[in-house]
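Field reference: "sequence" (input) and "structure" (output). Example, GtrA family protein:
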Amino acid sequence: MKAKLKEWLKRYGPAELLSVAATLAAAGLAFELTGSYAATALAGTWVGNGAYFGYILALDILQARRQRHATGLPYTGRTLLRNLRALAVEFGLAEVFDSLLIRPALMYYLPKALGSLSGGILLAKLLADVTFYVPAIISYELSKKRLRRF
């Protein structure tokens, strides 16, 4: 189990740090510009997701490129599509509920409830991550054997 935790932290940890920074920055800017909790929740959700998935996709592309080059094969558009399919399997179900319901709702209500924009956004992100990672990690583990060999 220690090895799995280490693997998951290596995969998701840097993406999470990047996402936290992007989420807080986007939410703060959105609130400053609009004063709207709805705009703040959506900006925090979507910019944080963009940073998170951008990092994960870049990580997966680099790993696939290394695997293919080690066997003398080029990284092609078809390989990119395989990377994207693996990400869709890993995150698809978790992301639908997370991005469209759980995370924006928490980012809307928690800053109001706590009386702190940054504290509420950060707590919302952490709580949403719990519901996100359970299905994401299960899907990742199930997809490793079939979808991550390039």
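The CA atoms of residues 12 and 56 lie 8 Å apart.
The helical segments are 2-34, 37-70, 77-114, 117-147.
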